[in-house]
């Protein structure tokens, strides 16, 4: 009969009222007392989708959201009153409000990092331009250089080899720019334990073509030269495999701009 209600359980009226009370869809601005405001998409009163959050501290995040958390791709910047402009802090992937995935980070001291992140820490392959003019390209674990990488000092000297906990540890090659020499050796906590030095091509163009003064007092006599020589071939093989991957997938370039 036409006057009968359709069969099935009817949703309570308070459930319908509750659903209507939720923020859904695009909202121009929702202000958060004492914090700032959010402008973007909502799903059931949760920031979800695309949106911009501006905080009173000057920080601004623009990107993807999921249930009130930064998830996906986003850009974090901070407003500088003296310059009346926003400075880029981070651009890249997020997971549960943390930098996670691939991204580029600009630090307060002027350093720039571009590469992998894992829960707010540098992790995986990455490149870092330090404020003092030095440069690192290689593996990171738990925010420290760890694994195979290359470190170029501000004066042009270059180390290629193994790192552990942010320090030179293991087999490596050190290139001395001033003397045009290559030092192949074994490092422990930044100190070379044993090594050999040889001239490299175009040594006649070096500024100071003299033997590099090795700190004999810091050499470790316990390190066997035979063990060291046996490991040289392993170092060379790792060197070729690493740079083949590095230059094919992550070519070196100039530091990214902050604006």
UniProtKB/TrEMBL annotation:
<dbReference type="Pfam" id="PF02493">
    <property type="entry name" value="MORN"/>
</dbReference>
<dbReference type="InterPro" id="IPR003409">
    <property type="entry name" value="MORN"/>
</dbReference>
<dbReference type="GO" id="GO:0001669">
    <property type="term" value="C:acrosomal vesicle"/>
</dbReference>
<dbReference type="InterPro" id="IPR052472">
    <property type="entry name" value="MORN3"/>
</dbReference>
<comment type="function">
    <text>Assembles a suppression complex (suppresome) by tethering SIRT1 and MDM2 to regulate composite modifications of p53/TP53. Confers both deacetylation-mediated functional inactivation, by SIRT1, and ubiquitination-dependent degradation, by MDM2, of p53/TP53, promoting a proliferative and cell survival behaviors. May play a role in the regulation of spermatogenesis.</text>
</comment>
<keyword id="KW-0968">Cytoplasmic vesicle</keyword>
<protein>
    <recommendedName>
        <fullName>MORN repeat-containing protein 3</fullName>
    </recommendedName>
</protein>
<keyword id="KW-0677">Repeat</keyword>
């Amino acid at each position: 009969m036409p006057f009968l209600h359709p069969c099935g359980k009817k949703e309570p009226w308070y459930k319908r009222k509750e659903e209507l009370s939720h923020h859904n869809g695009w909202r121009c601005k929702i202000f958060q007392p004492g914090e700032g405001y959010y402008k973007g998409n909502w799903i059931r009163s949760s920031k979800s989708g695309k949106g911009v959050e501006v905080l009173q501290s000057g920080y601004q995040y623009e990107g993807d959201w999921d249930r009130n958390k930064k998830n996906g791709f986003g850009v974090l910047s901070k407003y500088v009153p003296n310059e009346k402009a926003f400075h880029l802090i981070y651009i890249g992937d997020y997971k549960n409000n943390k930098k996670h995935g691939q991204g580029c980070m600009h630090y307060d001291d002027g350093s720039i990092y571009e590469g992998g992140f894992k829960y707010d820490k540098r992790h995986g392959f990455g490149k870092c331009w330090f404020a003092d003019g030095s440069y690192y390209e290689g593996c990171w674990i738990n925010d420290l250089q760890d694994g195979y990488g290359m470190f170029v000092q501000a004066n042009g000297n270059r180390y290629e080899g193994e790192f552990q906990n942010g320090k030179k540890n293991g087999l490596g090659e050190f290139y001395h720019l001033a003397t045009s020499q290559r030092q192949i050796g074994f490092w422990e906590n930044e100190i070379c334990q044993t090594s050999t030095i040889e001239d490299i091509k175009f040594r006649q163009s070096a500024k100071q073509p003299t033997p590099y003064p090795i700190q004999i007092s810091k050499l470790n006599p316990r390190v066997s030269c035979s063990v060291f020589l046996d490991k040289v071939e392993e170092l060379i093989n790792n060197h070729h495999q690493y740079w083949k991957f590095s230059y094919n997938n992550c070519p070196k370039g100039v530091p990214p701009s902050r604006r």
